[in-house]
Amino acid sequence: MTKNHFNQKKSISTFSESSSGNFFSYNPWLLFFNSNKISYQIFLLQPNDIILFDSRSRLYIILLGSLIITKVFKSTHKITLNLLTTGDTFGQLELSNDNFYYEAEAIGKTKIVCINYNTIIKACSNYPLFNLFFVNHLICCSEKAYHFTEIISHKSITSRLVSLLLLLAEQNGTQSNNGIILNFAMTHKMLAQIIGSSRVSVTRILSELLKTKLISIQKKKIVVHSPVLLSQRILNK
């Protein structure tokens, strides 16, 4: 799987009214930024594009899509820290040193807003309602991070994978007559990376879930037929 490091100079474009369209008209972040003439940038990540966290303090807001946040050590060993989706934010702090750095990898096509974090701090000082909104947002992000930690802390690899599939179905799934279809294709290698397992183990567990008809594959996307029945695999492990 080829990974393309994201080139901000080539891919970021300054937001303008003409480029926004109706798609963003409901987004609370953009509504606030536009109404108060706060400048920001918007760009599109392709699957497997990577944002490297650097010394510049920025806030990234996910308008649409999902990313994996990973801690990468000098030895190239990686630890997945979180799975972020539409509405989540990341990159608030300067997170790098000589021994490790952090990266965000897009799972599918992902649209993101980038804004200087100092601008957010000033907005919190000047606009009390935005300050309340931002605090509530950070609390929500903290709760989601705790939920993800619970998933990857399962001793059983099967429980980790099943919990991840249920989370993806809840946050990034589309209801159909056949069940909940994940909105993007995920390789066995990527699933293994997220739960801290091997591709072989993930392939074996998915094969078992396919045989028991708890999931199926439709156009390379996983379909969860019944979250209730699938969740019982966690209880039984």
Keywords:
plastid, DNA binding, 2 domains, 5-stranded mixed beta sheet, WH_DNA-bd_sf, single chain, disordered N terminus, 237 residues, Jelly Rolls, alpha+beta, globular, 5-stranded antiparallel beta sheet, Arc Repressor Mutant, subunit A
What report would you give on this structure?
This is NtcA-like transcriptional regulator. It holds the Pfam family HTH_Crp_2. Keywords: Chloroplast, DNA-binding, Plastid, Transcription, Transcription regulation. This protein is of the alpha+beta class and 237 residues long. The chain folds into two domains: 4-150, Jelly Rolls (Sandwich); 154-235, Arc Repressor Mutant, subunit A, CATH 1.10.10. It contains nine helices and 14 strands. The chain has helices spanning 8-11, 17-20, 28-35, 117-126, 128-152, 157-172, 188-195, 199-211, 227-235; strands spanning 4-5, 13-14, 41-45, 49-52, 58-64, 66-73, 78-85, 89-90, 100-106, 110-116, 173-176, 179-182, 215-218, 221-224. Strands 1-4-9-6-7 form a five-stranded mixed sheet. It is globular, with a radius of gyration of 19 Å. 29% of the residues are buried.
